[in-house]
Specification:
0% strand, iron-sulfur, L-serine dehydratase, 4Fe-4S, gluconeogenesis
Length: 311
């Protein structure tokens, strides 16, 4: 097998997958096993454990009584799940199912439950919601879902190497944007798409969330972060649907990642997880800060985050 690629570009991974006539996931698993001097079975088993943790988030996260430690959020996944399972969704069971699962994982995170950072805690609901919804709605086997996580991880590696996964460095485009791109790629592979279609889905998902700021109310990864996870998985399905239809991104994935880095660098520090701008600086945002911390002295920074990576 030819491992003539690295994690500096999506294009190099796609080209290697095509050259070896493999899905991206199989290529990544084989390359990582060789690089880490471990068996493919051992690496797959570890990834499967992560998938199982993701699966275990849904029930507790969508409980009626789940509440964040701050008291600001909780119960949204329960409401969305009732709509999804009651047949009353405007968008159908697939999208509604993805929305409640994304909310469930994010609300479990806010209540200090056990989650998988994918790639961060602040964006933890997007990839699990995509994978678990494909499993539930499209009958994708667990094995395929676990393998798709290798594809998603490779995409995340490229973004981390060329831009950032941290809201404190690049805004929420770096967190929920990266997660949406990772999820879009995973969905395409699960749906039988080609490596090149994976690349286009990554580009579409990421450019559609370009410029999103990180403005956590009271410095907590709850408002608006939890709902942005729902929006992120919706965007991932949109990008995957377009790519699977043969629609291509005019701007290649690697150039979109480059653009995200430049946008993040240009973004004001008030919009990068400091809770000094955006929604956090609104009158209601400041009132919620006072409600949680008993002070309205200003925006207060990231009080209890867990949302960013690689600061």
């Amino acid at each position: 097998m030819d491992f003539d690629f690295n994690y500096s570009s999506v294009a190099s991974i796609v080209n290697a997958a095509e050259k070896n006539n493999l899905p991206i996931s199989a290529l990544i698993l084989a390359q990582q096993a060789q690089q880490m001097e471990e068996s493919e079975e051992a690496l797959y088993s570890r990834m499967r454990e992560n998938f199982q943790v993701m699966s275990q988030c849904i029930e507790p996260g969508s409980s009626r009584d789940v509440k964040s430690t701050s008291g600001l959020t909780g119960g949204s996944a329960y409401k969305m799940r009732r709509v999804a399972e009651g047949g009353g969704s405007l968008t159908g069971s697939l999208m509604a199912g993805a929305l409640y699962r994304a909310l469930a994982v994010s609300e479990l995170n806010a209540s200090m439950g056990r989650i998988v950072a994918a790639p961060t805690a602040g964006s933890c609901g997007i990839l699990p919601a995509a994978l678990l919804t494909m499993q539930a709605e499209k009958g994708c086997p667990e094995h395929d879902c676990v393998m798709a996580m290798f594809t998603a991880s490779a995409i995340g590696m490229v973004i981390a190497n060329n831009a950032s996964l941290a809201g404190a460095q690049g805004g929420c485009q770096a967190e929920c944007g990266s997660a949406a791109a990772m999820a879009a790629g995973a969905i395409v592979e699960l749906a039988g798409g080609t490596p090149r279609q994976v690349s286009h889905a990554v580009a579409i998902a990421l450019k559609n969330i370009l410029g999103l700021v990180c403005d956590p109310v009271a410095g907590l990864v709850e408002i608006p972060c939890i709902k942005r996870n729902a929006s992120g998985v919706a965007g991932a399905f949109v990008a995957a649907e377009l790519a699977l239809a043969g629609i291509e991104s005019a701007i290649p994935a690697d150039e979109v990642i480059w653009a995200m880095k430049k946008v993040g660098d240009a973004m004001s520090s008030t919009l990068k997880e400091t809770a000094e701008g955006g929604l956090a600086a609104t009158p209601t945002g400041r009132k919620l800060h006072e409600q949680v911390f008993g002070t309205s002295d200003g925006a207060g920074g990231c009080a209890s985050c867990g949302g960013c990576a690689g600061k």
